[in-house]
Amino acid sequence: MIFLTIAVVLLSLSTPTSIALDNVAIGVGLLGLILSYKRLRLSDIDYRVLGVSGVGFVSSILSYRPIHSLNNAHYLWHFLPYFISSRVDRKKIRLVLILLGIAAIVSAFAVIFQAFTGIKINHAHLSDFMNIHFFKKPHYYVDIGLFSNSLTTAGILAPISLLFISVSVFEKDVKLRFYYLLVSFLLFVALLLTLKRTYWLGFLVALLLSPFIYFRSKSFRAIVLTILTVSVLSYFFIKPVHNSFQAVIHYSKSESAINRIALWQAGIDLYKDYNIKNKLIGCGSGNLFHYVKPYMIKRVRMAFPHKKDIMPYVYSSVHNEYLQILLKWGVVGLVVWLYLWGYVLYRNVVFIRKTDSDFYRGVAIGLTMGFIAFLVGGFFEHNVGDAEVIISVMFLLGLDKNILDSLGEAG
Q: Is residue 45 within 8 Å of 404, Cβ to Cβ?
């Protein structure tokens, strides 16, 4: 148990901040799982997670380059945080939230600080702070925050922010409630400053669906309505936010949107040309770019006929997780992936309505909204292939499974 606890503590601190420490935590957690093998007895969500891994494994084995494909099967390692956090002592979950909040504050501060100073704190030198200059308006950076890509930063901050928004409502300890509210506020501001429409949309969809999850708490309703109001006001009064949403509305004038649509079309073209085997189980992990590259080049050329160099617009993914899974793992993989999340959301809604614990209810509501934000984000990016994001989501899914099991034990 001690190794599982250490691993979960490390994951709590590292998922919002550092992929290197994530891998150390997973290694420690794997040792803990082996030593406490009796806790590995499988049930409900476990089988669904293993089902996704199993389809990916079979797809890789039957691909035209099985060794290469298995070497790129990172999902087998990245799904381990689920089994680690789902097996840790449930009494540690409150500690997990406190530690996760500390790491989230650091991550949010890194975004806010960089937006107003241009300094990326994890790559900064002393001279940068000696000559610090604050901007009057926030600036956008591709690598904003502690990660190398703003999409990664937003993909991690969005689910965690929704978790803390929810637990701040249901926490009875006044000091902890204030702490959770502070974390929520900083994460929300940081999420805005990433200027990533993908996760803004996921965040807003999660809030709009919250009445179908749980809406009996007056405090919960007030916070949700406040955030929605602030989001609307941000559109009208914060120019970068306004411009980002305008790019969505007038997508035909956005180079980024045109490129993304071209990538989607390339993926659809490829799937139509797949043989029966690939349509069923895909081409295997790590092989997709080999198949899709000529289709992407063709579609991108059609989208940008006046561009001499189109290679900067050609990516290794099609920037749509569902299409990406369909191409990598086939229709079988896509069905298994959708079944996993459909089952998780169903279990959570049932749990939220039946549990007698306000604390667990708050965690479950926040995680449910966080998963919705993640799933909506998947329509516009390859977030399962983003190691930091999928490790964070699997860690949160494990916590979710952990509290869901409390209902069965209580019964």
A: yes
Residues 6+ apart with CB under 8 A from 124: none
Which of 256-270 are b and which e, b meaning 16 or more Cβ less than 10 Å from the residue's Cβ?
A: ebebbbbbbbbbbeb
Collapsed DSSP state (helix, strand, coil) of residue 375: helix
Q: How far apart are CA 39 and CA 37, in angstroms?
A: 5
Q: What is the arithmetic mean of pLDDT over 305-312?
A: 87
pLDDT in tens, 57-82: 999 999 988 888 888 767 678 899 99
Using 50, 70 and 90 to split pLDDT, how confident is the model at 249?
Answer: low
pLDDT band at residue 410, thresholds of 50, 70 and 90? very low
CB 336 within 8 A of CB 52: yes
DSSP state letters, 262-295:
HHHHHHHHHHHH--HHHHHH-S-TT-HHHHHHHH
Comparing CA positions, the residue from 96, 132, 92, 112 lying closest to residue 14 is 96
The torsion angles phi and psi of 282, rounded to 5 degrees, stand at 75, -170
Q: Please give the Cα distance from 325 to 329 (Å, whole number).
A: 5
Judge whether 285 and 69 are in contact, CB under 8 Å. yes
Q: Tens digit of pLDDT for each residue in 318-346?
A: 999 999 999 999 999 999 999 999 999 99
Q: The dihedral of CA 395, 401, 403, 409: what is its sign?
A: negative
Q: Which residues does 319 contact at the CB level (< 8 Å), separation at least 6?
A: 260, 263, 264, 380, 381, 382
Model confidence over 113-134: pLDDT tens digits?
999 999 999 887 877 778 888 8
Query: What tokens were used for 63?
Result: 């691909």
Is residue 279 within 8 Å of 334, Cβ to Cβ? no
d(CA 308, CA 188): 40
Are 127 and 43 in contact by the 8 Å Cβ rule? The answer is no
